[in-house]
Amino acid sequence: MRAAERGDVEAVRALILLQGGERMRGDNCMNGPYMLEGIALMIAADRGHTEVVRLLVEYEGGMRDNYDNTALMFAADKGHTECVKLLIEKESGVQNETGWTALMNAARNGHTEIVKLLVEKEGGMQTAGIWGSSETALVMAARGGHTECVKLLAEKEKEISTVIAALDIAKEKGYIEIVSILSGLRPHFLVH
Fold first, then answer.
1. Residue 81 sits in which domain range?
2. Which pTM value belongs to this model?
3. Which of 53, 55, 60, 151 is the most interior residue, by most CB within 10 Å?
4. Looking at the structure, do residues 1 and 75 belong to the same domain, yes or no?
């Protein structure tokens, strides 16, 4: 775990057969994101240690912490594009316990390049709605004012009713360009 956190490729290589797939014990944030029983791959992905991710993905790719988060979700959240590229095949299309995806993390933070990589695999997925209505990556991008992300997500999510929520948020926040993009979609439920 510590070798992955530091990005120590040689130490990870030496320990991989002995400790690959081993989970942290209990709650831990290791000076970073909160994860419950996470793995070294998640820590490396969160820190953007691409070479460590490359080594660990074969041993730990697809594993989840106790909140159902994946290494891809941590990499997408922080904008580590090269790590996302290494993880996408094994971990895309996964939702955590609240329905969040790697795409939602990227869209919320305005990581346009990562949104491009994930939109076809995860576009249109919705959160579980445990705090009210469900949301999509489009809603999260609109809330953050991330125009380029909205452009990438709009066509994929245009037939999902959360477009209305995204449009309302953009209007409320005064994001004129996003309002224009979303108003121009004309999904079946907006046509009178």
1. 1-91
2. 0.86
3. 53
4. yes
